[in-house]
Write a structure and sequence with these properties.
globular, Deoxycytidylate_deaminase_dom, zinc, binds zinc ion
């Protein structure tokens, strides 16, 4: 809003394009990477839990993305998605791959040593093992809702021993909206294009 005013006042000045201030409300890196993890989670078929993970190297380049799902080639219509059943084989747990596993396995770099993982949920003990063995050095998580479970307790124990740092993410905004139509009418883009649009 004052952004638009700023830009407008610049436009009213003399040949202002080069003087226009850069946008101030752009997504910062941590917000961006966590949002990528959350967007990826929207691919999950799990009816109860959608978790995404995004691995970033020291140059702020994304080297792996994953979400929770059944293993490749295993028809996810033929495997159970329930959380509880008389027989554990009728729950999802023996089959599902967590987001962290998929993000590591999906890496598009030779390895993920020294990388940071952004993940929606604090990693379980099985994922902690993978994170440690993969050489990931930092974990940024959003929710820690299973903090008191044995899986998370064991996970913290392993991460602590291995020297993997973990930190809860505190988002600056509670939601990030992706609006496909904004490309046609966003304030910033419109202001940017104003001069070009005046001639035709
Ligand atoms: Zn896990």
């Amino acid at each position: 809003m004052d952004q638009t005013e700023n830009n407008t006042s610049h436009l009213n000045g003399t040949h202002s394009e080069g003087l226009m201030k850069k946008r101030q409300d752009y997504l910062e890196w941590p917000e961006y990477f966590m949002a990528v993890a959350f967007l990826s989670a929207q691919r999950s078929k799990d009816p109860n839990s959608q978790v995404g993970a995004c691995i970033v190297n020291q140059e702020n380049k994304i080297v792996g993305i994953g979400y929770n799902g059944m293993p490749n080639g295993c028809d996810d219509d033929l495997l159970p998605w329930s959380r509880s059943a008389d027989n554990k084989l009728d729950t999802k747990y023996p089959y599902v791959c967590h987001a962290e596993l998929n993000a590591i396995m999906n890496k598009n770099s030779a390895d993920v040593k020294g990388c940071t993982m952004y993940v929606a949920l604090f990693p379980c003990n099985e994922c902690a093992k993978l994170i440690i063995q993969a050489g990931i050095k930092d974990v940024i998580y959003l929710s820690d809702k299973y903090h008191d479970s044995p899986e998370m307790t064991a996970s913290r124990r392993l991460l602590n021993l291995a020297g993997v740092a973990y930190k809860q993410f505190e988002p600056k905004q509670s939601r990030i909206v992706i609006d496909f139509s904004s490309i046609n009418h966003s304030g910033m883009n419109r202001v940017n294009c104003l001069e070009g649009l005046q001639s035709p």
